Amino acid sequence: MPRSVNSVAKRARRKKVLKQAKGYFGRRKNVWTVAKNAVDKAMQYSYRDRRNKKRTFRALWITRINAGARLHGLSYSQFMGKLKANNVELNRKVLADLAMNNPEAFKAVIEKVK
User: Fold this and answer.
1) Ramachandran area for residue 87 (φ above 0: left; ψ -120 to 50: alpha; else beta)
2) What does the pLDDT profile of the chain (114 residues) look like in tens digits?
């Protein structure tokens, strides 16, 4: 009896990976073994960096809040402590946006907590 192989599924799997590798440089885009390794690595990076993105944005927001608070004579930690003490429930994303794009509103928040 002849050996049965599922060439349809095999071809579909390869096409899927090569489609994901579209836009890569050199053999990474059209040679199966190279493309498979490149796509696997890219998926690992994308999984990792979806988590890292949250960290980097939080760090950016903290930097912007700190810069805005220091213009009014407070450090970041003093400002956040006073926000908590006065039960002001604005998150860092909103505070950073105020500090960057709406300094008058940010100053009003600082005056409220001082």
Assistant:
1) left
2) 788 889 999 999 999 999 999 999 999 999 999 999 999 999 999 999 999 999 999 999 999 999 999 999 999 999 999 999 999 999 999 999 999 999 999 999 999 998
Both tokens of 28, joined, read 């990474």
Find out whether 95 and 109 touch, Cβ atoms under 8 Å: yes
- pTM for the model stands at 0.80
DSSP the chain: -PPP--HHHHHHHHHHHHHHTTT--GGGGT-HHHHHHHHHHHHHHHHHHHHHHHHHHHHHHHHHHHHHHHTTT--HHHHHHHHHHTT----HHHHHHHHHH-HHHHHHHHHHH-
Give the C-alpha separation, 57 to 47, whole Å. 16
